[in-house]
Amino acid sequence: MKIFPRMAALPVTVLALAGCTAVTDAAPSPEPTAVVTQYTPAPEATLEPLSDVEIALATQVRDAAVDDLNRWTDREIIGVGWYICEQFDLGVSGFELEDGLKQTRFNDAMVAAFMEPSVSALCPEHVDKLDDGTV
After folding, report:
1. Residue 134's pLDDT band (boundaries 50, 70, 90)?
2. pLDDT tier at 79 (50, 70, 90 boundaries)?
3. What pLDDT shows up at residue 123?
4. Residues near 61 by beta carbon (within 8 Å), at least 6 away in sequence
5. Residues 97, 133 contacting (CB under 8 angstroms)
6. CA–CA dist 112, 97 (Å, integer)
7. Which residues contact 91 (CB under 8 A, 6 or more apart)?
8. What is the rounded CA–CA span in Å between residue 60 and residue 128?
9. Do 132 and 98 form a contact (C-beta atoms < 8 A)?
10. Is the model more confident about 56 or about 33?
């Protein structure tokens, strides 16, 4: 009786293997090859020279002697100035923009050092929007 359960399982095993295919004499898979290249850093992007207006803005903001603005690069200062103009272009009010700057790393003195000089120098068409803020 012990032989019967083993023989009953044999047809199931044979049926399970019936779907398998035999290995043929196919070409062996090629060995993976490693390609080693020497690291070459990407060339530094050449930045456009700053305009006279941008340089004057950076100097004016830095001369406000607020916190550590004298340590900021010209491009960092100008980037904030253009950001202010872009926000006004998008319809943000002076109050909203001032509030947004204060929620980052800007204090009242820094906001004042950036807002009016940036708008006057870079986007004078938005000078009227300075009145709807507290600057």
Report:
1. very low
2. very high
3. 93
4. 69, 72, 77, 81, 113, 114, 117, 118
5. yes
6. 12
7. none
8. 21
9. no
10. 56
Q: SS in 3 state form for 3-65?
A: HHHHHHHHHHHHHHHCCCCCCCCCCCCCCCCCCCCCCCCCCCCCCCCCCHHHHHHHHHHHHCC
Residue 119 identity (one-letter amino acid): V
Cβ-contact 120, 57 below 8 angstroms: no
Give the span between the Cα atoms of 107 and 91, in whole angstroms.
Answer: 23
Residue 72, both tokens: 């900021």
Pick the more confident residue, 33 or 72: 72
Please report where in the chains the tokens 């000089």 appear, as a residue: 117
Give me the amino acid identity at 89: D
